[in-house]
Write a structure and sequence with these properties.
alpha/beta, 10 helices, about 40% helix
């Protein structure tokens, strides 16, 4: 089912994914997934569907749901940064999951408009609809570092709102996702791997499917934790991740180390001109300075993920 705004049927001129429509009847509670067209949102849709939930996917462009359309019960077409289009999004839903976050680095929209305002608008709609549960994806280490980076702060202001709301909320803080590690893979494929501070920062990234399965588990629990840090089963340095990518490609790739200060000073210089790019550079500065390691969740390996990328 495709729906727009007030959950009215969509006219035929609205683009369809081209996939077979989902069954009209499906067991289990209804979960709204905001960010369904992204990596983590898409993996969560598949995990929820497999666990027996019905999924209502929020999407600006339904065509971007093509690969997961079989797992989507309903599509709600709206713009997350425009609250006027969200009315009815959460009607009849048991829970909402949101992984909405800015991925592009142009000047507009900003982190504040996407990571904070859009998520609060969705949470507000959920509260008005009487939704019981809300699962929100923040960033590992954000509570301790919120004042030093706009990305951390934007995410944690959503957490502040959720704490004061009637929603039973769970905040997920993954250390990093496998698709975030694709940049190092792309470098290896291009012939040179660039790391900062000799690539010594340690991180245990997690596959999006493992996060999605954890979300399904949380939604089955009567009293889930208020906050959950998530890390993958293996911990690497950034240099080791680059080397793992090269191994998956079966090639020797040189590794070049850059001064960590390039990220710090680059972020400061760019701040007046592009807050998004500045915030992202600052974010990578702190990741490469302190690393990101959390208690490991058993699951998929980064080596297998890279080998799958190498076959494409």
């Amino acid at each position: 089912m495709l729906c727009v705004g007030h959950m009215q049927p969509v006219s035929q001129d609205i683009p369809h994914s081209g996939a077979e429509p989902a069954p009209s009847q499906a067991p289990g509670p209804l979960v709204v997934v905001a960010g369904a067209t992204g990596y983590l949102g898409g993996q969560t849709v598949l995990a929820l569907h497999k666990a027996g939930f019905r999924v209502r996917a929020l999407a600006r462009d339904p065509a971007k749901l093509a690969q997961i359309r079989h797992a989507v019960h309903e599509v709600f077409v709206a713009e997350a940064t425009d609250p006027s289009t969200l009315q009815g999004l959460c009607d009849g839903a048991y829970a909402v999951f949101s992984s909405i976050g800015l991925r592009q680095l142009g000047r507009r929209p900003t982190f504040w408009q996407v990571d904070r305002d859009a998520n609060i608008a969705i949470a507000t709609e959920a509260a008005h609809a009487g939704v019981k549960r809300f699962v929100f994806v923040s960033v590992h280490g954000a509570p301790e570092r919120r004042g030093i980076n706009p990305l951390f702060e934007a995410k944690e202001q959503v957490v502040d709102w959720l704490v004061q709301s009637p929603l039973q909320s769970t905040v997920l803080r993954p250390t990093g996702l496998f698709n975030d590690m694709q940049e190092l893979f792309d470098m290896a494929r291009a012939g040179r791997i660039w790391v900062f501070a000799k690539g010594e920062a340690r991180v245990n990234p997690i596959h999006g499917a493992d996060v999605g399965e954890r979300v399904a588990q949380l939604l089955r629990q009567d009293q889930p934790a208020a906050a959950v840090d998530l890390g993958g089963p293996e911990t690497f340095t950034m240099r080791q991740i680059g080397e793992l990518a090269a191994q998956a490609l079966h090639k020797e790739v040189p590794v070049t180390s850059l001064p960590l200060g390039l990220l710090k000073w680059g972020a400061r210089l760019l701040r007046p001109f592009n807050i998004n790019l500045s915030a992202m550079m600052s974010f990578f500065y702190y990741v490469n300075r302190w690393g990101a390691v959390a208690d490991p969740v058993p699951g998929r390996s980064l080596r297998d993920y890279y080998e799958e990328l190498a076959r494409t």
